[in-house]
């Protein structure tokens, strides 16, 4: 297998969002969980997205895991690696976008890296280096209340410079609009001024196509699924990849179906409220989760009694005020970790009870669940909503299964039912 494109995603929902985009653009793509071990048989593909859970861990660990993934991808021929970050630039001043970018750039020997989280398909646009989420500056969007990485600055040149050893410049929209050579000239100018990274403006997909084309001159880029679109279209336009329409087959799995929500995003809170109109929903008590283990057992007893007759949804999600109050009592990391591990324990119990169709809302939550279930890889199936595909497990010890890993911010109001409809 010689890869045309390698990708390292900093969380699992982000990885499936990107794998979805690459598949829709015509690249044969597989999503692996962590760096695959050599025993895992992978189909012949154009792109591999290695999913890490490195967004909110200590920066030095994120760097080490990303470098290991990069080595694995380069050893399989990947001439270009995309470091996939969140389209809302989720990070803190301690990292992890800057430190990982710096380390991968040093390994790649590139002088400058193009960086853009723009993903117009989900309303993420970048203008004059400022990130907008659905038309609202990042720091005024719901991301200001994220439980792990609240975003308080929409200027990405500033945000990235605070977490990187590199000096950071800007390729503005006026330059992007002039085309590939104008971007190349601006990058050369920035590199000459000692900049190691350039945030690139993009508002519409055609700009991402030009950005993707220029990025392919380099060995590394940093971005979200919009950058994936640009790279995939660039690979196809240059004839380096022959497009295919194949995705995972859609064989029915059957049996009970369950949903788990650990995301506290506004989108997920509204989707849970909507699901309550059509399926049994159990709301966990976050305080009890942090101080003991009984909530997982209570949830499993509840689910086992209901499962099979209808889909069930178990949610820890609460409003920004309640999240802040819990964090003030127990600490941000301790609260997040305890809830993620409880979700993982519940998923283990559900799998033992025969669940082979699972919908999970939340990036960190999905990471904790998929790790606990020891799923090695996924093939991408039909698209449920922008950025959220049905995923078919590859090489799972428990056999055939399908999952959907939803980024907290993604999906329409009836997302849980939309997903279940596509997971027969
Ligand atoms: N009620 C709650 N109070 C505080 N933190 C919570 C609560 N419910 C879930 N969490 C934590 O919030 C974080 C949500 O992150 P994540 O799952 O990545 O969702 P998203 O995709 O919206 O970012 C996780 O660490 C999760 O454990
Ligand atoms: O780019 C995006 O917005 C998503 O692919 C993503 O990374 C979402 O992360 P979570 O909100 O933590 O699921």
List the keywords:
single chain; 424 residues; alpha/beta; Molybdenum Cofactor Biosythetic Enzyme, Chain A; 2 domains; 15-stranded mixed beta sheet; 3-stranded antiparallel beta sheet; 15 helices; binds adenosine-5'-diphosphate; binds the ligand O=C(O)[C@@H](O)C(=O)COP(=O)(O)O; OtnK
What does this structure look like?
By secondary structure, this protein is an alpha/beta fold. The chain has 15 helices and 18 strands. It has two domains: 5-237, 3-Layer(aba) Sandwich (Rossmann fold), CATH 3.40.50; 257-421, 3-Layer(aba) Sandwich (Molybdenum Cofactor Biosythetic Enzyme, Chain A). It has a 15-stranded mixed beta sheet with strand order 9-10-5-11-4-1-3-2-16-17-18-15-12-14-13, sandwiched between helices. It is globular, with a radius of gyration of 21 Å. The mean pLDDT is 94.
Please outline the helices and strands.
Blueprint: E1 5-9, H1 12-24, E2 29-33, E3 47-51, H2 59-75, E4 81-84, H3 97-108, E5 113-116, E6 124-127, E7 130-133, E8 136-137, H4 156-163, E9 167-171, H5 173-178, H6 180-192, E10 195-200, H7 205-215, E11 220-223, H8 225-237, E12 257-261, H9 266-275, E13 281-283, H10 286-291, H11 294-306, E14 312-315, H12 320-330, H13 332-352, E15 357-361, H14 363-373, E16 377-385, E17 388-394, E18 402-406, H15 415-421
Parallel strand pairs: 1-3, 1-4, 2-3, 4-11, 5-10, 5-11, 9-10, 12-14, 12-15, 13-14, 15-18
Antiparallel strand pairs: 2-16, 6-7, 7-8, 16-17, 17-18
The structure holds adenosine-5'-diphosphate and the ligand O=C(O)[C@@H](O)C(=O)COP(=O)(O)O.
